[in-house]
Amino acid sequence: MPVARLIDSDEGPRLAFADGTDAQLIAENLVAFANTEGGVIVVGLEAEGAASLVERVDIDRLLRHADDLYNPPVVVEHWEEIVREPSGRSLRSALEGGNGLGGASQAPAYAIRVPRSTELHALADGRVLIRSGKVNRPLGGQEIQRLASAKNTGDFETEAVPGASIDDFSREMIDEYLEKRAERTKRPHSGEVNRMLAEIGAITTDGKPTVCGLLLFSEYPQRWLPQSGVVFAKFVGKTPRGESGLAGYSRREELIGPVPRLIEATWNMVWGEMAISAVVKGLEREETFEYPQFAVREALVNAICHRDYRLRGRRIEVRMFSDRLEVISPGGLPGFITVENIKDEHFSRNPRLVGGLFHWGYIEELGLGIDRMIEVMAQAGHSPPKFDARPYSFAVALHNERSQPEQPEWSRDTNHRQARALQYMRDSGSITNREYRGLIPSVSAETLRLDLVDLVEKGILTRIGAKKGTYYVLKD
């Protein structure tokens, strides 16, 4: 994928700027990106596309100098020259405008693409850096140990799967992926499909399917990876046990298929079991779902993206209780991630699977899902998601209780028609019989008249006027 498509105009988790004279800064960025998710270092441009003071840079010499400042060496995928026209175009426009020879009126810049590394890299002074937002953060002792442990497990998602061949890929799934990827990148794929599959880690260099490839493109990856399915269970109460110690679930389903289909099937299952209520605001009826849609989808996508597929004995579990939804993913938190820093840090156990689902459109913006999950839960009046990290599992629980705003005394002991009339009166100050009939046209005029009489008798409304001039106001 072109470097220009991976970057944005602001520094962030996968983009850093550096001038061509600071080998130390280049070394720090190389180490931080290699230890985390990989990224792009832009040399010769500043944020927002402004040219740096360096006109031309010997990138090879700069990288050789930086190599002396850390260990072990970081393998750079490639670097390329990009051309910026001095017309004030944004960085994205400059990078997408071409990467060839620059004329006299053009200022050159360079993009160094750094892959995620399977090794742990440290600077010469002993610091182990990771990329955190737009800064390079040094890790503490225990964090270094956790990251080293994650590196030592290898890249399981890119391992070849014995007994599988590229014929086990579904052409329909590949075509769908290419279509979604073109929509997201604004650039249709025009090269060889097998080359693209190798680039994204779906096949090895000699054309054998990988774990990631089968999860994305095989119609039935569970043939080789039985642990890659999902178990859904709907429980009657708040605990897994029912009466007399029996299983308390009313529905249990086992879901299979490639991960894009698995996400949709699990989402549809939860959606079908989700309670929906309705409230009337003004003249509009508004449906309220048991859980915010984004929070549910994010929990499901995260579980499928980040679970440890090496653990063969367990599948992802989705449990719906009367008071909460739990999504349990096999495998503890990856690398240096903890419950305390999960909102601010990002590290993927399966970065190629994450990249595939990002291009497919199942991930909106890399690294920001937890933030938004917390935000939408709060907006819906729910408590924040609860995270439970254990050595061999990670669970997210979404609770469905809402903080109820205090209701005015007059709103109690009324039917839904009367409640709608009272809301109308709060907005407009009064209501007539004709206006009430306009609000509730499906009910007889006599029933609506009796509704208003009842509210007067309860001391909630005051009747003013007589006959056709009658109207009602809220009693102080």
Question: What layout of secondary structure does this protein have?
Answer:
Blueprint (H helix, E strand, L loop, with lengths): L14 E4 L4 H13 L3 E5 L15 H9 L2 E2 L6 E7 L6 H6 L10 E8 L7 E2 L5 E4 L2 E4 L2 H12 L18 H15 L7 H7 L11 H7 L12 E6 L13 E7 L3 H15 L2 E6 L2 E6 L3 H14 L9 E5 L3 E7 L20 H10 L8 H11 L6 E5 L2 E7 L16 H13 L4 H7 L5 H13 L3 E4 L6 E4 L2
Helix pairs in contact: 1-2, 7-10, 8-9, 9-11
Can you describe what's shown?
With 476 residues, the protein is α+β, with helices and mostly antiparallel strands. The chain has 4 domains: 3-147, Schlafen, AAA domain (Methyltransferase, Cobalt-precorrin-4 Transmethylase, Domain 2); 158-221, no CATH class; 227-399, Heat Shock Protein 90, CATH 3.30.565.60; 409-474, Arc Repressor Mutant, subunit A (Orthogonal Bundle), CATH 1.10.10.10. Helix content is 32%, strand content 20%. The chain contains 14 helices and 18 strands. The chain has a 6-stranded mixed beta sheet with strand order 10-9-13-14-16-15, covered by helices on one side. The radius of gyration is 29 Å and the shape is elongated. Mean pLDDT is 84; it is low at 1-8 and 85-105.
